[in-house]
Design a protein that fits this description.
Elements: E1 5-7, H1 9-12, H2 17-20, E2 38-42, H3 50-61, E3 65-71, E4 88-94, E5 97-100, H4 104-115, E6 123-130, H5 137-140, H6 142-151, E7 157-162, H7 170-195, E8 205-211, E9 224-227, E10 236-242, E11 248-254, H8 264-269, E12 272-279, H9 286-296
Parallel strand pairs: 2-3, 2-6, 3-5, 6-7, 7-8, 9-12
Antiparallel strand pairs: 1-4, 4-5, 8-12, 10-11
Helix pairs in contact: 3-7, 4-6
Length: about 300
């Protein structure tokens, strides 16, 4: 194992247009090359988790040039968090693998600034995650956060998650990662064929892909593919119980409500693959902006 490499995180944050106001020149949208795609592969489960290793093997077998730049430890639920510390520890345990002691956002920042310095990857793939990232889960997902970190820097990105709406079963969920990556390869091929002389995805747009677990062993084929919106429900409902010593016991239960038509929850519940376009700027649509304008009309300092 090679020694750790430690860099000031302040330098890595220069990759983030949300902080600097502009995307780095190296991360400008690029036309897909005629040869293998150069893919930065990240996740939130950790650089050695089954999902990212399955993704590495499958994408490499498909002919792509894949480099893992992912968290050193499990960072599930960290969302779009970026560390503000003065330094970050980075390990390089094997060729094509970098392990960043931080969040998925930190990993993507390091990957763009250092591992892919001077020439951005053609695509960032985040996952595949152990469990779904639909509805409100996507808001807090480190898997989706890793993709967002790429998108806000101008690099096309796909977040991949594997799981149904029930609590994930370890064996069937890991088995279903195979079909998830089979679909991911097809999706990337489709993007390449439709891109022609342009980027794989429009600037500022990523894809959040949720693959259901199908069949008793998880290796079944999904019923179809649906382009979806993110269902607005939260899915998880926390409860806090006072322990009487200044701490509170936390329990979380699944609170599944009727699915929104055309949403990711509806698709996954029906055994279909949900593909939800996402962006990094959180802007609402024109109708919501118009409503806000009416609410704020006449307001003065």
């Amino acid at each position: 194992m090679r020694p750790q490499r430690v860099l000031p995180m302040a330098a890595l944050l220069l990759c983030a247009p949300a902080l600097t106001g502009t995307a780095p020149a190296a991360a400008a949208p690029q036309s897909p090359p005629p040869g293998p795609l150069r893919i930065l592969l990240t996740n939130d489960d950790g650089y050695d988790a089954p999902g990212i290793r399955t993704a590495f093997a499958r994408l490499t077998a498909a002919g792509h040039d894949v480099t893992i730049v992912a968290p050193l430890t499990n960072q599930s639920g960290t969302g779009t968090k970026v560390t503000s510390a003065a330094s970050v520890a980075v390990r390089h345990p094997e060729p094509k693998v970098w392990a960043v002691d931080g969040t998925p956002g930190d990993s993507v920042a390091f990957g763009l600034a250092e591992v892919f310095a001077g020439r951005a990857p053609d695509l960032v793939v985040s996952g595949t995650n152990f469990g779904p990232n639909v509805a409100g889960l996507a808001n807090h997902s480190g898997t989706v956060g890793g993709a967002i970190a790429a998108v806000e820097s101008g690099v096309p990105a796909i977040a991949l998650s594997t799981g149904g709406l029930a609590a994930p079963d370890p064996v069937t969920t890991v088995n279903a990662m195979g079909p998830t990556l089979d679909f991911a390869v097809k999706l990337i091929d489709r993007l390449r064929s439709r891109a022609r002389s342009g980027p794989l995805l429009p600037r500022g747009v990523g894809l959040n892909v949720n693959h259901p677990v199908i069949g008793a062993d998880g290796t079944g084929r999904a019923a179809g593919v649906a382009t979806t919106l993110q269902d607005p429900q939260t899915l998880l409902e926390p409860d806090f119980t006072d322990s009487g010593d200044g701490t509170w016991k936390v329990t979380v239960k699944l609170a599944l409500r009727p699915a929104v038509r055309g949403g990711d929850v509806e698709a996954v519940a029906a055994g279909r693959i949900a593909v939800s376009p996402v962006n990094a700027d959180w802007n609402p649509g024109p109708a919501d902006r118009a409503v806000a304008s009416v609410l704020l009309a006449g307001l003065r300092p």
